[in-house]
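Show me any protein, keeping tokens residue-aligned.
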Amino acid sequence: MMPDRALEDSAIAKAITKVAIDLAGLREHHLQKRMPVVDIVFMLPSRVEKADFDGLRLHSFDESMQVLRVESAVPEKMVASSHAERYVVAVMLDAIEAAGDFFAERSILFDAPEHLTMVLALFPDRQHAIN
């Protein structure tokens, strides 16, 4: 969610785009073809608007589509950070863990460990965020 067009060229927007492109390269991976789906929304801050929470939260679950929406409130200091890509990957890892707990509570099959392994294999040196 980009509340300000000035953010389009920010380090965080570029990092989100790069990670999405890298993941698209795994489109044929068997995990990418299974339900449920975890949809991560990065909420970027601007002078006009910012998320009303910190960190990560589960937003909603569409049972018919089997999509869990997770929102991440991006801290202002990450907008121009040289660590933006590492931050994006760390959010993905946290979202997968949260999704694993969510689906386990509902007895919905979701292989969180395999999802974590896939992300870590794709981004081995970007797994820890620097705050």
Summary: The chain has one domain: 5-123. The mean pLDDT is 88. The first helix runs from residue 11 to 24. Helices lie at 11-24, 84-105, 112-122.
